[in-house]
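TL;DR need structure tokens for one chain.
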Amino acid sequence: MSMNLKTLRLLPLAAFVVSLSAMASEDNAALIKQGEYVARAADCGACHRTVEQGGALFSGGYAIDSPMGRIISSNITPSKTHGIGDYTEQQLADALRKGVNAKGQHLYPAMPYTAYQGMSDADIHALYVYLQHGVKPVDKAVPATELAFPFNVRALMFGWNLLFLDASSATWPADADEPLKRGQYLVDTLGHCGACHTPRNAFMAEDSSRYLAGAALGGWVAPNITSDQASGIGSWSNDELAGFLKNGHVTNKAQAAGGMAEAVENSLRFLSDGDLHAMASYLKTVPAIASTHPVLNAPRTVVPVDMTTLEVGQGDQASLANASETDGARLYNAACASCHGRDGQGTADAFYPSLSQNTALTGGQPNNLVMAIIEGISRKGADLEVNMPALGGDLNDQQIAAIANYSLQRFGNPALNVSEQEVAQLRRGGDVPLLVKAMPYVLWLGGVLGVAMVCWLVLARVKRKRERKILEKKNALNRRFHSR
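>> reply
TL;DR here they are.
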């Protein structure tokens, strides 16, 4: 009887403990969900992925082609042997905000800690809980990053961080709209849009004086997304901007490709409509910076093709296999017309987009047109999946230049022209930054100065020895003289 009474007395306590446990479990689940959203908004999965398709989430190994060489993304699963399973929350915060891992090693800015330094404590906490408890651990090692000297000296990043890791954040008036603040946080911090859309200075840091004014990256061009009416997004509506971020395309305006297509597929399509509109609202407030490249302000009026002027077999795919074929019209009709039409107007539903109302052709640089031909387009937006085949393996540089120039002259910006040499350069990843170009000469000059310094030290030592011997002889003579 007494045992039953004791049991009855303990029942409320047990129920309370179970209730607390359930509440903690619900709180943890909510944090994991919030952390997953933060990881999506920060686009962690775009880099910390496997090389193979369908690999384990966040297990790393993906190679990021930077101007300094290939940087291999790390395993950020909660694996205690190969991931971040032993990280404390503070160590994760240091990696995100300071670019320093748990071993005290400096990270390269390919991991955009220069943007993530503005992350809120709440978002870092949620991300930590998600990565530790919402992600499956993968005990898989990834190859080490191997860059050429001196870029492989991680300690040099300490000096770079002193110069370019700016901990200041945007200040808003007290009455500023919350959506604008949220938009700025998503654009500048989590979304790290400036990592691609802001030009770099001579030391490969973002040039804040040209914030979001567009930059070349891996052959592609991340376009001007300031509020400039002609070369930026000033003429876009908020709905168009938000729709582009979510779906990767806006009819008769633009389609996401390259790195932007990856951002849409891995990150932006998962964000809430409220967040996407907040980003759009903020981007519309960014001060306008006009492009120095000629932009076509109005779509071209394309004259319909006279079918009687086309040669027999002009649209034959055999043209692509003929390396001697360099006529842009023939190559376009063989490779592009079946989707985009002979008149370049695409399809009525815009699934195959118009070329005469397309920023890849009407913008101030031909890079994205050429890169789309070389690499194709693969994009999964919130509304549909798009795959444009890559022709870089089928066509040589001269043929790609011919298609690009025909398309520009007929449908796009006639002020642009692409050479065979420019196509070859874009295949290699675009222009090499000044820092990388100059480094061999800097190292050579440093070596020469080093040898000169060693020679000077040796000669100075020899000279001192000689002077010391002369002085000793003089002193000896003086002693003899005075001893007499």
